[in-house]
Design goal:
Length: 387
């Protein structure tokens, strides 16, 4: 009974996660549901065993460093109007750490049932958001250049589409083994990215498409090539005959032109000039808060890059600890796992996407599934079952 309740809560949280009714820095409805599910996991499961996983131990060290640096940053910047971000950033990391552990626990306990259910929920969520997005192009809602649906900004919509399709692609479920479902999920995600007009998401989509073709369900067989060709012809027809899609593509080019101005570069816009203006802070870590102290940079907000933010906020040691954690995530199947996560890494070069819980859920799934496959292969070799 408790297993079904926890699975139901996690599934519900996934489905309602695209609905943001509060500000970007505040917990959403899905977060409150997830907190209940996490609490039930810690109460009813033997979570202590999860700390035997090498990736979990590596993540503990990284999150502890985040806590120490942000605590020090808060104490040194009491005068700042944005010093509360030190606590907010730490809470994000602790929360996502607990979600990471809880997902590992539920996967270890229920495994196949959990994977098939999550795959269905992710596909259903993408489908529902696609229908909401489609309504904006056929007159049900007023068309927008950069659609947000129920997110707080368009980039969140684009990132959601990439993350959810990546989660769907990595789950070894019955749905993912069906080529038609994979292409349908990719089509829905691509459309959501298109209406978001997120340039970082566009670049990631190309990588996602390449990964689809290279996955085991899309080997170079005649049937696969025919299906992919038909899909390509259909996509070409839609793009050239749908006025909304064509207009959206034209606007993307105009947006790039209008946003360029003398003295403004992508690196400055994303906060990378902070490394030039304040190189000493990047060594030990500036902490993730009190952004108003950075008066010499193009903007005084946070660094708009997840990976650059790790280095600047938590220093060289923080970057090393995060890379060590990521190494444990992908080490069982380094090439395949890195390729799967590469679109997410590309997006995080231009945006801070490491606070999003689905980022950590995807890491958890990649880690668990690849570790399990290695374990099963080793057992098969012992019994002479490898073909």
């Amino acid at each position: 009974m408790i297993d079904k309740l926890i699975l139901g809560l996690f599934s519900l949280a996934l489905f309602v996660s695209p609905f943001h009714f509060f500000g970007s820095s505040l917990p959403q409805v899905a977060d409150y549901i997830t907190i209940i599910a996490v609490a039930l996991v810690f109460i009813n499961y033997r979570v202590r065993e999860i700390f035997n996983y090498s990736a979990v131990r590596a993540l503990v060290y990284y999150v502890f460093l985040v806590f120490v640096i942000n605590l020090a940053g808060f104490g040194l910047n009491l005068h700042s109007k944005t010093n509360y971000y030190f606590f907010l950033s730490t809470i994000y990391y602790v929360y996502n750490f607990l979600v990471f552990i809880s997902f590992l626990a539920i996967l270890k306990r229920l495994d196949k049932v959990c994977i098939d259910l999550f795959a269905f929920i992710v596909f259903a969520t993408l489908s529902f958001q696609f229908l909401l997005g489609l309504s904006s192009s056929i007159g049900i809602q007023k068309p927008q250049f950069r659609n947000t649906l129920y997110f707080n900004n368009p980039n969140q919509l684009g990132y959601f589409a990439i993350l959810f399709f990546s989660i769907f692609a990595v789950l070894p479920s019955r749905l993912r083994s069906n080529k038609l479902f994979v292409l349908t999920a990719f089509s829905f995600a691509s459309y959501l990215i298109l209406i978001s007009a997120s340039r970082a998401a566009y670049g990631s989509t190309i990588l996602v498409a390449a990964i689809i073709v290279s996955k085991e369900s899309f080997k170079l067989k005649v049937s696969s090539m025919i299906l992919l060709s038909l899909f390509g012809v259909f996509a070409f027809y839609v793009i050239n005959n749908n006025r909304f899609v064509s207009a959206q593509i034209d606007r993307i080019g105009k947006r790039t032109e209008t946003e360029s101005s003398p003295g403004k570069t992508v690196l400055k816009e994303r906060g990378y000039d902070r490394f030039i203006q304040y190189p000493e802070l990047a060594i030990l870590g500036a902490g993730e808060g009190a952004f108003d102290r950075f008066t010499k940079t193009y903007h005084s907000g946070e660094v708009h890059s997840g990976l650059a933010n790790v280095l600047f906020s938590y220093g060289i040691l923080g970057l090393i600890l995060f890379i060590r954690f990521f190494y444990f995530i992908i080490k069982s199947k380094p090439v395949s796992n890195l390729a799967t996560f590469l679109p997410i890494l590309i997006f995080n070069l231009a945006h801070q996407g490491m606070r999003v819980t689905h980022f950590w859920i995807l890491l958890c799934l990649i880690y668990f599934i690849s570790e399990k496959e290695i374990y099963l292969n080793r057992n098969s070799m012992k019994h002479g079952e490898i073909k």
